[in-house]
Hints:
By secondary structure, chain A is mostly helical. Helices cover 78% and strands 0% of the residues of chain A. In chain A, helix 8 crosses helix 9 (173-206), helix 10 packs across helix 11 (221-258) and helix 11 runs antiparallel to helix 13. Helices cover 75% and strands 0% of the residues of chain B. The radius of gyration of chain B is 23 Å and the shape is globular. Classes of the chains: A mainly alpha, B mainly alpha.
Amino acid sequence: MLNYTIRRLMMLIPILFAISVIIFAILKLTPGDPAMILLGDRATEELLRLTREKYALDQPFIVQYLKMMQNFLSGELNSIYYRDNVITVVMSRMVPTLELGFSALLLAVVISIPAGIISAVKRNSFFDYASMTTALFGISIPVFFTGILFIYLFAVKLQWLPASGYGGPIYTVDGLKHVLLPALVLSFTLMASTTRITRSAMLDVIREDYIRTARAKGVKESSVILVHAFRNALMPITTNVGNQVARLFAGAVLTETVFAWPGVGRLAVNAIFRRDEALVFGAVLILSVIYVLVNLLVDLFYGVINPQVRYE
Amino acid sequence: MLRVKTFYLFIFSLALLAAFAPRAGLDLISYGLFCLLTASTLVLALAIRRSNQRLAAGRVKSSGQLMWNRLARNKNAMFGMVVLIIFMYAALLAPFISPHDPLETDWGALSQGMSSAHWLGTDDLGRDIFSRTLFGIRVALGIGVTAVVLNTLIGTVLGLIAGYYGGRTDSLIMRALEIWNSIPFILLAIAIMAALGTGVGKLILIVSLSNLMAFARIIRGSVLSVKEADYIAAARVIGISNPTIIVRHIVPNCISPILVMASLSIGETILVIAGLSFLGLGIQPPMPSLGGMLANGQQFLHESLLMSVVPGVTILLIVLSCNLFGDGMRDALDSRLND
């Protein structure tokens, strides 16, 4: 397992390098003088000259890229809107985003895996039918529409929960109240697809011979389902959760916008409207790195539950 | 049975064509496209009739007919198909059937509920929600289908090349796609929009580059399984060139996974476009878009729920129908279930 982990970590380096090159190259497509773009309305002749020098703007692409990364990593790349270095600005919004993302992931796993197992065991029952219909709606409804409906129902009509905003860290009562609606909305798609996959994976496994053997040996039914069957069904479920992480990111940007959540996704979108290229670069790069790391964690977990992967 | 239904659809389209003929000048392109659609329903009806005749003559059923039989038995898929056809008609005929101009503001009727003048109410500027939704469907389906077609084409070509040539070409293409795929799509969209600005063309470009990995991987897989077959070796021995082998012998064998992937990704694509429009990065106002209408509706949630519910339910219905139809296609084309 250690070997496998190290090998996966080594593979990270070229991927991170390539990602930063791609994002840099895309932003290079912006028409206009790059020094003017980086400076915004503060541009004076003197500042422009200094910026051209700082980012090596008269040099070839690769030198410009290296300069940009050097400035970015040493905290000298400044956002024109916040007048502060990009890493600090992005990191100050990171905690709310991670809180939202992990609460959504947790909610999805806690609700959908049991729902999927029950649907598979009690196939064609009312519960199965109801949860599959809900799941079908879950993958078809836009997150922002669910968000608006939930705001209308729980905040405007029933007034149980606040409509939007951030209430502080998640372990405080106010913080928890504020995170509940956005997390529920964000986890909806993930819940839907995880329930469907859990159900079909369990149905596949339950047909296997070794399950019949276990039953014939007189193993308790609950233990047949939860220990023998579920462990093997876990592999497709993990793969699916891994694939859904990208959707979770897209959903997070939308959810943050609907609920005025002070996260990195909304920061990046607002940076576009403010023509703040440096901040777009930093936010997109940092979020991509986190995405790659989350995927790595999913892969490592996959290695834990499926020994075949490690020895490939 | 199916022939009769398609024939009725043709008669129905013909009637609509005649009814809207005096106003064809309103939007000649839509009218032309609708003529094309009407003609294709006739062609479809005739084709089905011919195959039914062959069937009656005791010929073997084609795999297309077997597939269709399975699809037609699937009630969910049929529901999805019917709803999609209705939306397609609504999208094409939007300029002729919408009761109001989607951009026309009525200052005497702001944020109103349902009435006989405005069937689904009006928005904060007094624009007719029903007409705006019709045009929104048109934009969503138009851009969605274009993007999926492009996406399918690019992904398929990459998958074909990677799978057929193998070796270094294969690993180069697949590595590149893996890296492309390791940036979440929404972040790529944000970066591209930040650099190039927003617009319909850029929206299509971004969305058509989004799902390449999934397409390429599946096509590559089916190419690899077909490539070793004897008939491919035979084709190569008699000196047929590689591009011809790919187009004539490999593509037809990969058509079902391509169709399934494409039909499953239409719903997803429409969701993505609506999401980008909701963020203000997709279709720009005043052009009506379902996502933009929802963004607007959220601001006026206290005044009028209709402003959010109508576009939201429309997106839900479109995507739901696409998913039902796509699931049905997948089940129908799954060769393991071949009977």
